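User: Fold this one for me? It's Cyclase.
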Amino acid sequence: MSTRPAFEALPLKEDHPPYSAWGLYGEHDELGSLNLLTQETVLAATSEIETGTSISLNLPLNVPIAPMNPDRGAFKHRFIVKPFSNDDEVVVNTQSSSQWDGLRHLPYQASKTFYGGFTQDDISGPAPTTRGGVHNLARKAIAGRGVLLDFRSWANNHGIHYDAFSTYRITLDQLLKCAEEQGTEFRVGDILLIRSGWVEDYYRRSDEERLALRGRAERTFAGVENSLEIAKWHWETGFAAVAGDTNAYEAWPPERSSSLKHALHEVFLSGWGMPIGELWNMEELAAECKRRQKWSFFLTSQPLDIPGGVASPCNAMAVF
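Assistant: Here's what I get for Cyclase.
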């Protein structure tokens, strides 16, 4: 368990947003929960490497072929043919494929404040700063022990079937039972990956059906339940970061009438400074974990150094 303040002690100051941990790592901190990835934690995680097998956790940049959010542009790739060589250019929305949500993505909706208290003015006002930018994740260079909860496989084994493009809410009890059956134990500083089956269900669809997903009147996706007990478990277990194969990590749309009354995005990103990975490709990873009967591994991720950026492709891989 983490030695951080108890979940019930949050927020650390009365005038801070609910469940926030502002100031825990210093007034000007921009790494949030990534501070848990100490040199000692990373070094200990290298014991997960046994054979040198490496697995990419990234979808191609043009998958999905149309981002689920219609306000996000699709990937574009242009060749530049020159007399003696070739160049190319890409245009990509940083949240359109496998990516990290950085700390500038979603503020607390009531106060409109981001991690540590910066505001939209700090991002796009008359005197903008780079505070909270995704370049901080890039310069940290994320590495540590990754742990997969292969929820889709667990659900199938227990007769639970759902379309990952529906609002299926994964409960804490289900996650704990999945971890128990895998024999998975957690350590402070782990990077938690949850496979809901989004990628599997996406590839089962035709191109026509994939394009139609973008135009739905309401975007719905499977993910973890947006509840107080889920938030408390994430905090007290001490995860450095989390990632899912779905669009928003938590089930979407989040149930704001729940005990939490906030989207996990608000608490994780703007409360704790904890990056959220989305649309990660965990299919080959899940198969390898099942083959080995081992669901932990060394994980590396090198986000793009975009000064002041909101998000970045994750460039992540697992090493066994």
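One thing worth pointing out: The radius of gyration is 19 Å.
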